[in-house]
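Hey, sorry to bother you again with one of my protein questions. There's a protein on my desk that I can't quite get my head around. No rush at all, and the record is pasted right below.
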Amino acid sequence: MAEKLGLSGKDVLAAIIVGHEVQARIGLACVPATERGFFSVPVFGNFGAAASAAKLLKKVKLIVPPKSIDADKITIKLKNGKDYSISVKSWKEHYTSPLTTEELLAKFRDATGNTLSPNQAERSIELVLNLDNLKDVTELMKIITFPG
């Protein structure tokens, strides 16, 4: 989408951040449901993807609140004037308490354990960690995508 719209890498990164924040905050608001066994990723992931797409289409604006304002609150303002807000206290993956590199890699390995072989997981990690130096992402895409 970004390529078709002629957007910059900075625009793509902003869209990824918006999508991640929306998905994470909605997910955290629903933690009680996930603790009862509700598998939330397919639901919250859709919100994150929609938010990312909306950002790329310049339909949403990312406003970082000043430090004096609660950073644990997200507000979505609709065109019809309605506001929807939610507050979530800091969690382990919050920017104030980020995962270490080893924790992040362990989480990736765990999350991909049923879909990627150990060799594929390690190779994809290696490729992503060296993404700035890759001339082509074809190998990475072949590892992390599945034929449709």
Observations:
- The mean pLDDT is 77.
